[in-house]
Specification:
16% strand, alpha+beta, globular, 2 domains, 220 residues, 7 helices, single chain, six-stranded antiparallel sheet
Length: 220
Amino acid sequence: MSPEAYISGFVEPTVKDLVANPASQRHAFIACLVTFHLIDYLTGRKSRAILRAEFRRQSPAFAAIDRLAHAHKPVQSGEKGAHSRAEDGSNRVMSAAEVPSDARDATLVGEQADIVALVNEAASFLRNKIREEAAPSEEPVAATYYVVVPFDRNADGYIVPGAAQETISAGAAQSRARTLANEHEGALAFSRRGDRVTGEFEDAVILARFGEVDLDALTR
């Protein structure tokens, strides 16, 4: 199976399922595990163990999903009754208290880990590594990136963009934007093709917009 077939047949559907079930630990675990195994398509001249260690250093998101995907026992929160509910098989939000302590790095923001954002960021990181390995070393690596940006009002009442999030496909970007629009004033999904090394990019292509969005604010 090619990396593209694995991404479209396994990674994208599991991420889509997670977006539809953001409070499900089962969906979160499966998405982390399936995304982690993109590393299997990166053989090159280095062993899997060496690549894994390098990628954990290079990408906090990859390091986080690696830890979450390979947790050997259920994590428990300090909330009263949480243990019994988990044993009954119910789905709960994976809070920061439930994430293994070594997974609480810079990518785990606030009181709750945004697993969808972590999975998307890690998948994009691994997909870019696959592209780099497949591309001739003497040529720049041009690729299409799928980005989602939430928008909120600042203290002066203006709509301003938040932190951009990268996703693995156009469909994932649109789904993510729709979800973020429910949590913010609005959200924008777009794609852009270019080379991160040279910093040269083509004009962005808008994929979807929800709620209040200020395109001009992105260039200020």
